[in-house]
Amino acid sequence: MEPDRPSPLFSVADLVLAVSRQLTQFDDRSGDITPLETTVLRHVDRHPGVSAGVAARATLLPPSNFSRAVRSLEAKGYVRREPDPADARTVRLHPTAKAAANLERLDATWSSLLGGILDDAEITRTIAALERIEASLAERGGASSDL
């Protein structure tokens, strides 16, 4: 009797993880930022000026892990904290020039690695599908990808 094959959706998730691991191996600075810090920095890059509380909820990280990641990113020069002008108790997070340079470097590296694999229509469909997956999973997890 042949063993059950994984479902197609399992295969999608498995391949997304495998591609992520492969992309990370080509990132010469991957040791500079931990996976936990990457999660926080990705959110701050997409939502400059986000409050720390909103970002912590959106990333689904326990407050202590989130705070540790922000402190480390700040020490490494990727994130800066600013008090909210309307409420001094609230801290706003902003990416720095170093974070922008990091994104530019990743864009160049990943574009070079992935160039020629997909045509423009496939790229558009893949981005749309992955954005739907991310948004749906964020909703199920109690966080929104556009917080």
UniProtKB/TrEMBL annotation:
Which Pfam families does its entry note?
MarR_2
Q: Which residues form the HTH marR-type domain?
A: 1-135
Question: What SMART domains does UniProt report for this protein, alphabetically?
Answer: HTH_MARR
**Which PROSITE patterns did the record assign?**
HTH_MARR_2
**Organism domain of life:** Bacteria
PANTHER family with a match to the protein in the record: HTH-TYPE TRANSCRIPTIONAL REPRESSOR YETL (PTHR33164:SF43), TRANSCRIPTIONAL REGULATOR, MARR FAMILY (PTHR33164)
Put simply, this protein is called: MarR family winged helix-turn-helix transcriptional regulator
